[in-house]
Amino acid sequence: MLVIAMPLLVALASPLDVDANEGFHEVAVLELWSVYGHFTDENGRRLGVSATFFNGKYLFVSGAGNFVTFSDDEKKASRGDYKLIIPLVSPVSHTADRLEERFGDNTLRKTDTGAYRLSMKVGRHRLSLELKPQKKPLPMGGAGRTEWEGRRSEGFTVPRLEAVGTADLGEGKARRLKGTANLMHSWANAMEEDHDLFIINLDDGT
To answer: pLDDT, tens digit, for every residue of 72-87?
Structure first.
């Protein structure tokens, strides 16, 4: 029994190969690419940004969509919108061997230089970012996979990216942004429950 179990134990303990898993996973029931960031605009106003690309399957139906949220530190308020995409109605393209997701006009891709480019229009909100990694990707939870109650989730995070770009918070004008961000990519064999997530970027670079 020990000999039979060892390969499985090694597989579960081996860290996730991030480079081989940046792209789309066809077998996943739910897959998410999310960017969370803390920014300052050209007037010194601080903004929090959350932008997500998701792809999901429910029974025999599959769909995709985008969420974007802006938190205005000065106004102590947040605003945002979402866009649901049915593949038969709007073009959605995935790439398995690299990160290049296109949901209608919204795109997220990794360039040949290793930087990430995000372009998103959701309702009246717009976001365009270039994100340059300052830290190596980290498998989530150490090994990059967790299992509980029959649900298997895998993924990784790029914990710190230097980010610049523009954003329109639905006001009809673009703000120039500069700050730090985090990119998370996860996929699972079942839909996930709601949860809270906190991203903290410290001044010492952690």
So the answer is: 888 888 999 999 887 6
